[in-house]
């Protein structure tokens, strides 16, 4: 297809808008193959009216009303945020339940990766020493110790991939017993037991914090047969001076490194993958290229017996009827509604609503509002039945397609998916973001050819080929699936190559004192 040919992408035959596909957008007078002529310039990814719209007419994309025309819009005109009024949120009542369950697909067998088996039955894709912190006060000390461990000890243990500190801004100065405080506490506890960290937990505490190790890891939270966490408390009287603190952490870490170094990768079925999918820096192509390809992979993984989590409450809230229709049963549907209602109430307490989600970058990329953004986000979940729901910070207990309720913030979502037990992360982006996590490999998927070319050493997969016609959703999906198995077996992603390690962010809905 010629690059200078005017092209638009219409998602459904009932849509009355389409997005401009050409790099750089199109100027006034550009004529499409069907004879539609632009009456004004329209940027790439932004919507053009396919026929005249009167004030109050529904604007339809993805066969969903994403808004209403706030004024008359001519055929061929730019349908921007300025001429679009957002519809009210879908009520959380009278929803369809289990009415759109895809027929069982044939199992996908014979696919494996090389992973690290843990005593609790989980499998890691990396072999990492993680040092948990109970309170923000010790972060500086732990950061110093981690640098020394990497410099002095890690080279002696070639089978260990990395050493990281699980640092955060929680643990004290908070209402530790308030409603909602259980969310950051269980998040930190479950992150510490992520499959990529092996079977043992190492903790550094201060000694006077509100979240001491005994509360973070009560006896009931330690699995039978699992090792009791190793704790270094900085206020212990035996630590005389800074060097003694560092030495205590380094010495304890050496024992953990020795255990981790004895581990070896072994052949594991693809069913042991626990994949978190997320999008950030989204644009109008997210729901056209990258997210549909991820949705295709999601269905492949479910067929292989693996676990896939999709998340981001505000970015699926406007499609709740689509989700409950795919719920495996009434209990799953009720759990999804409960999480949506909890988040609605949370936003209401903060004096905001779902419209606060869309960023200037989303809008520059053609997403006019959260409804349009949500329709493109949901497709990451594929078509499989949704078999379970997690509240923020909870740990997975079953396989299949899971809705893990999280805020839409990239870093909070990634943190909560880590807590759930994610061992591999897939992240799609249209505007571009250098997002990465130290605890799991992150596969980055570009929505557009231009981004993939410009950020050639940051994007692992170019889904923009779908829009340009050089690949299908299925082509990119299978490519991504095979890449996942390679990455799970040790192949480094670009984010790992550049050591792009964003900080973990604990979601704390409780008051700060």
DSSP strand tally: 21
Global mean pLDDT = 95
Shape: globular
Oligomer: single chain
- What would you report as the Rg, rounded to the nearest angstrom? 24 Å
Number of helices: 14
How does the major sheet shape up?
7 strands, parallel
> Spans of 5+ residues with little confidence (pLDDT < 50)?
none
Alpha-carbon distance between the termini? 61 Å
Please state roughly what percent of the residues sit in beta strands, choosing from under 5%, 5-15%, 15-25%, 25-35%, 35-45% or over 45%. Answer: 15-25%
- Judged by helices, strands and strand pairing, the structural class is alpha/beta
| Helicity, as a percent range | 25-40%
Task: Walk me through this protein's architecture.
This protein has 513 residues and is an alpha/beta fold. Helices cover 28% and strands 17% of the residues. It has helices at 139-152, 182-192, 213-216, 242-261, 290-303, 320-325, 330-349, 360-364, 370-378, 410-420, 449-454, 465-468, 473-488, 494-497, and strands spanning 8-9, 17-20, 47-49, 58-61, 64-69, 78-79, 84-85, 112-117, 123-124, 128-133, 162-166, 202-205, 230-233, 266-269, 274-279, 307-310, 386-390, 400-404, 424-429, 442-446, 461-462. The strands form five sheets. It has a seven-stranded parallel sheet with strand order 17-18-16-15-19-20-21, sandwiched between helices. Strands 1-2-3-6 form a four-stranded antiparallel sheet, with no helix packed on it. A four-stranded parallel sheet has the order 11-10-12-13, sandwiched between helices. The protein is globular and about 80 Å long. It starts with 7 loop residues before the first strand and ends in a 16-residue tail after the last helix.
